[in-house]
Amino acid sequence: MTAPDSDVARSTAAHAADSAAPPVTAGAVGPQRIVCLTEEPTETLYALGQQHRIVGISGFTVRPAIARKEKPKVSAFTSAKIDEILRLEPDFVVGFSDIQADIASALIRHGVEVWISNHRSVPGILDYIRRLGALVGVADQANAYADELQRGLDAIEAQAATLPRRPKVYFEEWDEPLITGIRWVVELMRIAGGDDVFPELANESLAKNRILATTDPVVPRAPDIIFGSWCGKKFRPEKVAARPGWDAIPAVRDGELHEIKSPLILQPGPAALTDGVQALSRVIDAWARRHA
């Protein structure tokens, strides 16, 4: 996904006056001017009370909502306004995955310190929060926050252990072509009480390795629940139900086709471990109680 250049430019110009961080005080620890190329570092830094350090964010950031009002948007996911980022004079840039390698490389060539994380699991997300906190000098707060998130996951898992039945679940990350759920999503479904119908694909970190060549393989797996989270566009359950042969799938037959907004579940950060897993849990819990 890419944001229009004009949108990025307008956002940067509109927020230029807001991009200056407070003067660095004596004894300040860690980077003071941070650019976040994806949403999860922005959400994490806000949660840790370190939003004053952020001088630029991704145009796809929606959490927390206030960040879109306070911070200039200087990047998409696979592209960025390098000149605009450099004008913000960042002392630290945070991105995610090999998909942002070109952005990172360009910034590094200009002498900017860049950290590209590549976590793909629930434990990886928790560790990411701890590491990011340590890198910006607030390790204690980050550890406490990660511990709080872990307790929330433990509570959901304990609740799921009481379910009378565990549904078989199919998670669809994209529809053209079909892409199954990434590892942290599958782990969260398991925590919430569901069992992924394509567990052999979950550990594939690259989306291209989780592509189903046709819609046929889903039918014999007979999922009880289908979750759709089509990144960047609205999930269309009627289109899913109309796929050839899918009327035989229990989830389609029973109307168990549910959307989870991609910012809640497809960002490997706090959102997935809170609102994302809770959304999964609500649907799975309701199904299990009905099918006791």
From TrEMBL:
Name all Fe/B12 periplasmic-binding domain ranges. Answer: 33-288
Q: Which InterPro entries match?
A: ABC_transptr_periplasmic_BD (IPR002491), Vitamin_B12-ABC_binding (IPR051030)
For this protein, the record's Pfam families field holds: Peripla_BP_2
Coiled-coil spans in chain: none
Specify where the region named Disordered lies, as residue ranges.
1-26
Per its UniProt record, what PROSITE patterns does this chain match? FE_B12_PBP
Q: Where is this chain compositionally biased, Low complexity type?
A: 9-26
Record's superkingdom? Bacteria
Question: How is this protein named in the record?
Answer: Cobalamin-binding protein
Q: Provide the species name.
A: Cognatilysobacter bugurensis
State the taxonomy lineage. Answer: Bacteria, Pseudomonadati, Pseudomonadota, Gammaproteobacteria, Lysobacterales
